[in-house]
Design brief:
The complex is a heterodimer of chains A (about 220) and B (about 120).
Chain A (H helix, E strand, L loop, with lengths): L1 E7 L2 H16 L3 E7 L5 H12 L5 E5 L5 H8 L4 E4 L13 H11 L6 E8 L13 E7 L6 H4 L1 H6 L2 E5 L11 H11 L5 E3 L8 H16 L4
Parallel strand pairs in A: 2-5, 2-6, 3-4, 3-5, 6-7, 7-8
Helix pairs in contact in A: 1-4
Chain B lengths: L2 H15 L9 E9 L6 H12 L8 E7 L1 E5 L5 E4 L14 E5 L3 E8 L2
Parallel strand pairs in B: 1-2
Antiparallel strand pairs in B: 1-6, 3-4, 3-5
Helix pairs in contact in B: 1-2
The chains are: A alpha/beta (about 220), B alpha+beta (about 120).
The structure holds zinc ion.
The site of zinc ion has 8 residues of chain B, from loops.
């Protein structure tokens, strides 16, 4: 006997993501899902970004990267409210699911936050599959990785709304073709905005901050 | 490895779909639809499914996966085509806004019970 089902397997996560979206909408909080492979300099980028935004923009951070217990401390120095998710105890360690995000956001007290940044687990596969109720997704790639990564992980670069190419201060010392890397991103996602930056020297930071601020103010309804 | 989470959902949804009046149900086949761009590795999923399905009506059930090709549509020039690689650039107008129509599915279509 065949029983017809026709159901999305990740429906429970999608339903939860919609609940999260309602919650964030109620609080006028812009939610950014930050994804990357390990070693892309995502935490450094986040630290510098917070340093530039705080205290004018009130930022909270959910850290999901399990291998870096020092990260939360580094981020807290900027004055942002930080909470850490240890995914281990939930039986998975490759992505953050929507249910973990709402719990953490409530723990942070979202009520007076303009921006909530979720530092997702460092890999380019699993987080792409899980909607967490975010407003935008950013993927961070660094020049110490391969130029062909966007072609190897197309879903991640498809679902991203914006990309960062980090560590451009190292370009003179590396055999890395930044133009090719950006081309590959645009092959996968033709209209993807790409910010070429160095979190270390803050080169190229202005356009990235500008993009973020515009999006935050659009959601919070406050002026520049 | 998020295939473990997917396997858990598979088993949960399948068990919920079996009518209550069937005594000792035994699932032989679980039919799935998985898009070629979905982040699911077949052997990881099979491996996880075997672990999760143990001691449930799905123990020893086989996963029959129908892989869905990636099809896209260019909103600028209205052409549609099937993608064979990761390049989403429109070959007709070069600049188009290309949307994905299929290829991200992770769905259960049906299950087949033993008589
Ligand atoms: Zn076109």
């Amino acid at each position: 006997m065949e029983i017809n089902i026709q159901k999305k397997v990740l429906e429970a996560n999608e339903t939860q993501a919609d609940i999260n979206r309602q919650f964030f909408k109620k609080h006028n909080t812009f939610v950014l899902n930050m994804m990357s492979s390990p070693g892309s300099g995502k935490t450094e980028t986040l630290c510098r970004t917070l340093g530039k935004l705080m205290p004018g923009i009130r930022v909270g951070v959910i850290v999901g990267d399990i291998c870096t217990t020092n990260d939360a401390d580094r981020l807290e120095v900027t004055g942002a409210r930080v909470t850490q998710i240890n995914t281990d105890k939930f039986g998975g360690d490759c992505h953050l699911a929507a249910n973990l995000i709402l719990d953490s956001a409530q723990r942070l007290g979202c009520g007076d936050l303009d921006l909530l940044i979720v530092e997702n687990i460092g890999n380019l596969v699993c987080p792409a599959e899980f909607d967490i109720g975010e407003d935008a997704r950013v993927v961070v790639l660094s020049v110490t990785e391969g130029e062909d990564k966007p072609l190897k992980y197309p879903l991640m670069f498809r679902v991203a709304d914006v990309a960062i190419l980090n560590k451009i201060d190292l370009l003179p010392y590396l055999d890395f073709d930044a133009g090719l890397a950006v081309d590959n991103m645009k092959k996968v996602h033709p209209r993807l905005p790409v910010f070429e930056i160095s979190a270390k020297t803050e080169e190229g930071f202005e356009p990235w901050l500008e993009w973020l601020k515009i999006n935050v103010f659009e959601k919070t309804g406050t002026g520049l | 490895m998020h295939e473990m989470g997917i396997a858990q959902e598979l088993v949960k949804i399948a068990i919920d779909s079996i009518p209550d009046d069937i005594e000792n149900p035994k699932v032989e086949i679980l039919n799935l639809k998985i898009g070629k761009l979905a982040s699911v590795v077949e052997h990881s999923l099979t491996f996880c499914f075997e672990i999760i399905a143990k001691d449930t009506p799905l123990e020893d059930a086989r996963l029959d996966i129908d892989f869905v090709p990636v099809t896209v549509h260019c909103k600028s020039c209205n052409n549609g085509w099937e993608l064979t690689g990761p390049v989403f650039k429109c070959p007709f107008c070069e600049d188009g806004d290309v949307e994905m129509l299929t290829g991200r599915e992770i769905e259960i279509t049906s299950l087949e019970l033993a008589d």
